[in-house]
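Morning F.,

Quick status update on the modeling queue. The single chain you submitted on Monday has been processed. Sequence for confirmation:
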Amino acid sequence: MARKSNADTAANPGRLKQIALTYKMTRKADPKVGLIVAGVGIVTFGVFLAIGFLLDQPVYLGILGFLVAFLAMAIVFGRRAERAAFGQMEGQPGAAAAVLDNVGRGWTTTPAVAMNRSQDIVHRAVGRAGVVLVAEGNPNRVKTLLAAEKKKMARIMPDVPVHDIIVGTGEGQVPLKKVRTTLLKLPRVLAGPQVTQVNDKLRAMGDLMSNMPLPKGPMPKGMRMPRGGKMR
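Structure tokens below.
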């Protein structure tokens, strides 16, 4: 019991520090976040307290109002912090990979399965919806990368659905902040064991490519080194 109490005490400063850092970062992109969150809390508490006086139960509804106000403030702050974070990440190389890492349970993500010299990138996510290829970069260039990856997936796993998403704000593209919800809305067509089989097959394919022997001397012109391979 004593150890648990000490651990909780040590963890609380860490959580408070994390909240403070999140607030500072959010305030840079959203200067009014403090006023808005405080306003939500005051209005919510005031409404419950007013109802409490009308019903002659100010103490009970005052306590309930305080709890509901705290919850409302946390929700509003969380959403505005998330929006600010996405705003700062928008357009940064690799931002989609960070979003995919937080999609949730049931999804396995592999960042940068394809990339070109212009730093256009394709990431891969595998879940109950099948394989999802998420591209970020120039829309015209990433289409070539996506086509090559989709062709590879069709050759390896012809019966597995393959979806593609281009991250961006243009027509036919998905904004960074909506990538997660877009993945979660895809129809679930694979069972759990099938998802495991797909991941195992892709992992085995990656291992075979990483262990592929490379010729000695300069790399031939136009040859690409397999992902994960090392020069010896």
